[in-house]
Each structure stands twice: as structure tokens, then as C-alpha cells.
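[Automated response] Your request has been received and processed.

Submitted sequence:
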Amino acid sequence: MEVNTSNLTYTLIDHDIHWIKLHQSSRQTVEDIFIQLTIIVESAPHDKPILYLLDSSEVNDLPFRYLAQRAKRWEAEQAYLPTVRNAILQSQNMMMMAMVNMMMRIFNHRGDMSRIFPADQKAEAIIWLRANS
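Generated structure:
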């Protein structure tokens, strides 16, 4: 399964890893992320964690305040929030790394696990996701 928009590409890898690759930095990108997360969560089994591979290596920064507000609103709208494992592929942009760290603190309150990987370590990120699921 694959979804392509100008803002992101979603691909299901080997039936268990939800790869979301961001292409643009905009409020619409943030909206597209949460549309895709909703689809994933609504179809996910409740007995195992969801494995996310978020690739933000093409994006310099996202509208952080909007992202944080949208994340809190999205969480409140969900009837069920599964445990998740997040591997985040990131370039060495310091501002984006700070934003990713802040988002990890927001989302890691339910026993979720997240880890940042350099953009060129996709294979290592996938191994980490599967080892910790």
C-alpha cells in the first residue's frame, strides 16, 4: 500500500512498518500526517505496537507550534491510542532535531519508544523497530 501527496509519501513496509516520508514543511504537511496516522490507527490490531518510520530528512523544519497543537487535538479525538515505536530519520539540522526531541517528549507518555537516526541509517532504524516491538 502506498499513498503519495506533494507533502508526504506513505508506504507499508513488509506488512508491519508504516513509513511516512515528509517532502515539504507546511501546515498542510502536518494535516496530511495526522490524516495518515488516523487511517493507520483505525486499522491497526490492538494487541501489538504500531511501528512508525518517520523520515523527515528532506524537511528543514515543520511549523512546530501548529504541530504540537494538532498532536494534542488528535490524541484527544482518538477512541483508542495504541502503543507505538517511532524511528525518526533526520538530517543534521539542529532546529529540526530540537523539534523532533520535543515531539518525542509529547508522545512518549504511554510507554511508547522513540529514537532518532541519521538520515542514512534507514536499515538500522528498521532493525531497531522490529527488535523492540
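Summary generated for your ticket: DSSP finds four helices and six strands in the chain. Residues 4 and 10 are 6 Å apart (CA to CA).
If you did not submit this request, please reply to this message.
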